[in-house]
C-alpha cells in the first residue's frame, strides 16, 4: 500500500521533482511544525536552570510550571472558591483572569469579524461579479501590504487623542473633549479585528462564490424571505468557510502580540504578553513554554468543541 | 376541474443595456393550458420566463397573471413556481425538505410537511426516498423532485425552463409523457421552454416560436408545422426544403414561384395572405416527405421540379435522396423505405413531384441557421 503510493508518486512526478517534493514536505512538517512544538513541550516540563546545570542531575521533568499557572507562586494568598465555597487550594487569580479575558476577547473579535465579513463576502461572492468585484477585492488586500506593526501604529495614530476620529468628533461638535480610545481598549479591539479580517473574508467568499445563484432564486421563488434564504441556503453552504475563517481569526487573535503591545491600554494585559514576559524580561523559558502550551491546548479544545457544536467535520474545512 | 389561471404578456420588451432580449411580446395563455416557447439557444426564452416569474422586470409592457398586473410584485409573492434549467435543488437538505421548502416558509409544522412530502413522493413515484440526499438520486429522479418541489408550492402557473435537456433520449421521452400526465392531473397552467421541437409539438396545446427575441408565431403544433408564419418557423420546426425565387403569377390562395428547380405552384401561407404581389421575392417550402419521384402524367395540382442528384442515404424507416437545385441550394427527399438500393448516379438529373397544397409560399426572409 505504502510502497505503491511512493512508486506512483515518483512515476507521476519523476525522480528529481518527486524527491524535492518529498523533502520539502518533510522539512515543512518536521522542522517547521513538529520539532518546535515538541521542544516547546519539552521545555515546559523542565526547571529553569542556569546553563551550567542543564543536562546535570538536577535537570529532571517537573509539573511545577503548570502548577504555577494554576496555583501562583509560593505564598500566594488567593484561594480557589467554587460557587462561593472556599477551598484552601492556592489560585493564580491574576494569570487565569488574564487568560480568560484573552479567550473572551478573542471570541468577541471573532464574532465581530464574522458579522462584518459575512455580508461583505456575500456581496463579493454573489453580486459583485466581474471586474468591479476584483477591484473591490484588491482594495481590501492593499492595506495588508503594510507591515502588521506599522498598521498597529497607524491605528494608534487614528485613535489617538489628536487622531482623525477625535478631531472629527470634536470638530463636528458631537464631543466636547476627545475620548481616550486607547485607555478604553477600543483601539485594541479595532486593531485586532482589522488585523485578521482577510482571513475571515476569503474562506467565506470562496464558499459563497461557488454557490449556484439559481439556488437563491429558487428559494425566493418558493416564497422565502431574505433571512430564511441566508439561514437555510447560504449559511449552511458557507459553513465550512465560516468555520475555517473563525478558527483562524480566533487562534491568531488569542495568540496576537503586536496589537496588544502597541494598542493595549495601560490596564489591559493580553495572555501572550505574560508569555512574552516570561521568555523575555522574566528570563524563565520553561514557564513561558508552559503558559504557551496551555494557551494552545485550550484554544484547540475550544475550537474542536465549537466544531462539534456546529456539526462541522474536520475534512470539510478548507474545502 | 378548475379553469386555471391565465397569463398575458402585453407588448413586453426586455432590454439589457442596448441589447434587446425580448421585443414586443404579445402572448395570451389560457388557464390550464400547456404552453411552450420554442426557439434556438439565446433567443430569449429564459428571459421571458424570468419576466413571468418576477426575477426580471420588463423594460416596457405588462405581465398579467389571472388578470392582475404583476408590476412591482416580487417572485416570492407571485402565484408561479419556476423549475430551473439546472433544477437548483438544495444539496444540503434531504429530499423531503427540498420538496416542502415552500411549506416551511409558510410555517407549516413538521408533521404536516412530512405528510405532504409523502403524498408528492408518491405522485412522482419515489415513495420512501424522502430521506435521501439530492446527490443520491439519478438525473431523472432529481428532475421529478424538482417538479414535486414546485408543485408543493401550489402555484397557479408552473414555469419549466428546459427541464428535460440534461436527460438522455429514452428518459426524456418518458418524462415528456409523465409531465403531460401530471399537468392533466393537477390542471394548472404549464409554461414550458424548450429548444427541442419534438418536445414542443408533442406536449403542448399551443406553441410560440421565437427567433432572436421576437415571437414569430403562436399556434397549435399542427398549424405551426403545416402553415408556418415565417421562413424562420418553416425552417426551424421540422425539416424543410426552400425554393427561392420571384413570384410569377398569383391568385387569392396560390402563387407560382420561379425557382431554380422550375416553376413551383404553392398555397400562400395564412400569415402571408394579401401581403404578396407579382414580382416579390418569395420562398416556397416543401417538406422532404411531401416530395416524390415524378411518375406518370402530371396531375392538375402537381408540380414538376428538376434537380441533380448528390447522394442517397438509408435511414431505417425512410430512404433519403439529396439533390441540388440549379443554384446549388440543397433538396432533401424522404421516401418510405421500400427496399430501394443506391441506384441513382450522382450528377444525373431527376424530376420530382409535389402537390401544390403541400407547399407553402411566404415572403422571403431569414431562415433558421443549422
Ligand atoms: N442578465 C443579462 N444581461 C445581459 N444580457 C443577458 C442577460 N440575460 C440574458 N441576456 C442575453 O439575452 C439573450 C437571451 O438570453 P436567454 O437566457 O433568454 O436565452 P435562452 O433562449 O434561454 O437560451 P438557452 O436556450 O441557451 O437557454 C442572450 O443573448 C443573452 O446573452
Ligand atoms: Mg435558457
Detail the topology: elements first, then pairings.
The complex is a heterodimer of chains A (319) and B (370).
Chain A: H1 2-13, H2 15-44, H3 64-71, E1 79-82, E2 85-90, H4 93-127, H5 131-141, H6 148-159, H7 164-172, H8 186-195, H9 197-209, H10 213-221, H11 226-254, H12 258-263, H13 271-279, H14 285-309
Antiparallel strand pairs in A: 1-2
Helix pairs in contact in A: 1-2, 2-14, 3-14, 4-8, 4-9, 4-11, 6-8, 9-11, 10-11, 11-14, 13-14
Chain B: E1 7-16, E2 19-29, E3 34-38, H1 45-53, E4 60-65, E5 68-69, E6 80-83, H2 95-99, H3 101-106, H4 110-123, H5 139-152, E7 157-161, H6 169-186, E8 189-194, H7 197-203, E9 206-211, E10 214-219, H8 221-226, H9 231-236, E11 241-250, E12 254-259, E13 262-268, E14 281-286, E15 292-293, E16 302-315, E17 318-324, E18 330-336, E19 349-355, E20 359-363
Helix pairs in contact in B: 4-5
Task: Describe the protein.
The complex is a heterodimer of chains A (319) and B (370). With 319 residues, chain A is mainly α. Chain A has a single domain (94-317), classed as MetI-like (MetI-like fold, Orthogonal Bundle), CATH 1.10.3720.10. Chain A is built from 14 helices and 2 strands, in the order H-H-H-E-E-H-H-H-H-H-H-H-H-H-H-H. Chain A has a two-stranded antiparallel sheet. In chain A, helix 2 (15-44) packs across helix 14 (285-309) and helix 4 packs across helix 11. The two termini of chain A are 26 Å apart. The relative contact order of chain A is 0.11. The model of chain A has no long low-confidence stretch (mean pLDDT 87). By secondary structure, chain B is α+β, with helices and mostly antiparallel strands. In chain B, the strands form 4 sheets. Chain B has a 6-stranded mixed β-sheet with strand order 6-7-8-3-9-10, sandwiched between helices. Chain B has a 5-stranded mixed beta barrel with strand order 11-12-13-20-14. Chain B has a 5-stranded antiparallel β-sheet with strand order 15-19-16-17-18, with no helix packed on it. The two termini of chain B are 42 Å apart. At the A-B interface, helix 10 and helix 11 of A face strand 6 and helix 3 of B. Bound molecules: adenosine-5'-triphosphate (ATP) and magnesium ion (MG). The site of adenosine-5'-triphosphate (ATP) has 12 residues of chain B, from strand 2 and helix 1.
Amino acid at each position: 500500500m505504502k510502497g505503491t503510493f511512493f512508486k506512483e508518486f515518483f512515476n507521476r512526478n519523476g525522480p528529481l521533482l518527486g524527491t524535492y517534493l518529498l523533502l520539502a514536505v518533510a522539512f515543512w512538517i518536521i522542522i517547521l511544525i513538529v520539532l518546535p512544538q515538541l521542544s516547546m513541550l519539552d521545555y515546559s516540563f523542565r526547571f529553569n536552570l542556569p546553563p551550567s546545570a542543564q543536562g546535570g542531575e538536577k535537570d529532571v521533568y517537573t509539573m511545577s510550571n503548570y502548577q504555577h499557572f494554576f496555583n501562583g507562586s509560593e505564598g500566594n494568598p488567593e484561594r480557589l472558591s467554587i460557587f462561593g465555597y472556599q477551598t484552601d487550594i492556592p489560585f493564580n487569580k491574576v494569570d487565569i483572569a488574564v487568560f480568560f479575558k484573552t479567550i473572551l476577547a478573542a471570541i468577541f473579535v471573532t464574532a465581530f469579524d464574522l458579522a462584518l465579513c459575512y455580508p461583505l463576502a456575500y456581496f463579493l461572492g454573489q453580486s459583485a461579479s466581474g471586474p468591479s468585484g476584483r477591484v473591490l477585492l484588491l482594495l481590501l488586500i492593499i492595506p495588508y501590504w503594510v507591515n502588521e506593526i506599522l498598521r498597529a501604529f497607524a491605528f494608534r495614530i487614528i485613535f489617538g487623542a489628536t487622531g482623525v476620529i477625535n478631531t472629527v468628533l470634536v470638530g463636528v461638535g458631537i464631543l466636547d473633549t476627545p475620548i481616550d480610545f486607547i485607555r478604553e481598549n477600543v483601539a485594541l479591539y479595532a486593531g485586532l479585528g482589522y488585523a485578521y479580517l482577510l482571513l475571515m473574508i476569503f474562506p467565506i467568499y470562496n464558499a459563497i462564490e461557488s454557490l449556484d445563484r439559481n439556488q437563491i432564486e429558487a428559494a425566493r421563488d418558493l416564497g422565502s424571505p431574505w433571512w430564511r434564504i441566508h439561514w437555510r441556503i447560504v449559511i449552511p453552504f458557507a459553513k465550512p468557510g465560516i468555520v475555517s475563517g473563525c478558527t483562524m481569526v480566533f487562534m491568531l487573535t488569542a495568540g496576537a502580540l503586536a496589537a496588544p503591545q502597541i494598542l493595549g491600554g495601560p490596564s489591559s494585559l493580553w495572555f501572550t504578553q505574560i508569555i512574552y514576559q516570561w521568555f523575555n524580561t522574566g528570563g524563565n523559558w520553561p514557564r513561558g513554554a508552559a503558559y504557551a502550551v496551555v494557551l494552545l491546548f485550550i484554544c484547540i479544545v475550544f475550537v474542536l468543541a465549537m466544531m462539534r457544536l456546529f456539526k462541522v467535520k474536520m475534512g470539510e474545512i478548507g474545502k | 376541474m378548475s379553469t386555471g389561471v391565465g397569463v398575458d404578456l402585453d407588448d413586453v420588451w426586455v432590454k439589457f443595456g442596448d441589447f434587446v432580449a425580448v421585443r414586443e411580446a404579445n402572448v395570451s395563455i389560457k388557464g390550464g393550458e400547456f404552453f411552450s416557447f420554442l426557439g434556438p439557444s439565446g433567443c430569449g426564452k429564459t428571459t421571458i420566463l424570468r419576466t413571468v416569474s418576477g426575477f426580471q422586470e420588463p423594460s416596457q409592457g405588462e405581465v398579467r397573471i389571472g388578470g392582475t398586473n404583476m408590476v412591482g410584485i416580487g417572485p416570492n409573492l407571485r402565484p408561479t413556481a419556476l423549475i430551473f434549467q439546472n433544477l437548483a435543488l438544495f444539496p444540503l437538505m434531504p429530499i423531503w425538505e427540498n420538496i416542502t421548502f415552500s411549506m416551511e416558509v409558510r410555517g407549516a409544522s413538521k408533521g404536516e410537511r412530512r405528510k405532504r412530502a409523502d403524498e408528492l413522493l408518491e405522485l412522482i413515484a419515489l415513495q420512501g426516498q424522502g430521506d435521501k440526499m439530492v446527490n443520491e438520486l439519478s438525473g431523472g429522479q432529481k428532475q421529478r423532485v424538482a417538479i414535486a418541489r414546485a408543485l408543493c408550492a401550489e402555484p397557479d402557473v408552473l414555469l419549466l425552463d428546459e427541464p428535460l435537456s440534461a436527460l438522455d433520449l429514452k428518459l426524456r421521452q418518458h418524462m415528456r409523457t409523465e409531465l403531460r400526465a401530471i399537468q392533466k392531473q393537477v390542471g394548472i397552467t404549464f409554461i414550458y421552454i424548450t429548444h427541442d421541437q419534438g418536445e414542443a409539438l408533442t406536449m403542448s396545446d399551443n406553441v410560440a416560436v421565437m427567433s432572436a427575441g421576437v415571437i414569430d408565431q403562436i399556434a397549435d403544433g399542427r398549424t405551426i408545422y403545416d402553415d408556418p408564419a415565417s421562413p424562420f418557423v418553416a425552417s426551424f420546426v421540422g425539416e424543410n426544403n426552400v425554393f427561392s425565387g420571384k413570384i410569377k403569377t398569383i391568385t387569392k390562395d396560390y402563387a407560382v414561384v420561379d425557382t431554380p428547380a422550375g416553376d413551383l405552384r404553392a398555397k400562400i401561407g395564412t400569415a402571408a395572405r394579401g401581403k404578396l404581389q407579382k414580382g416579390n421575392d418569395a420562398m416556397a417550402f416543401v417538406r422532404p416527405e411531401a416530395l416524390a419521384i415524378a411518375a406518370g402524367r402530371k396531375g392538375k395540382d402537381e408540380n414538376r421540379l428538376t434537380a441533380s442528384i448528390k447522394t442517397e442515404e438509408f435511414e431505417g424507416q425512410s430512404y433519403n435522396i439529396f439533390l441540388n437545385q440549379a443554384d446549388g441550394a440543397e433538396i432533401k427527399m424522404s421516401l418510405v423505405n421500400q427496399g430501394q438500393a443506391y441506384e441513382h448516379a450522382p450528377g444525373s438529373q431527376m424530376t420530382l413531384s409535389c402537390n401544390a397544397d403541400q407547399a407553402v409560399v411566404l415572403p422571403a426572409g431569414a431562415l433558421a441557421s443549422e
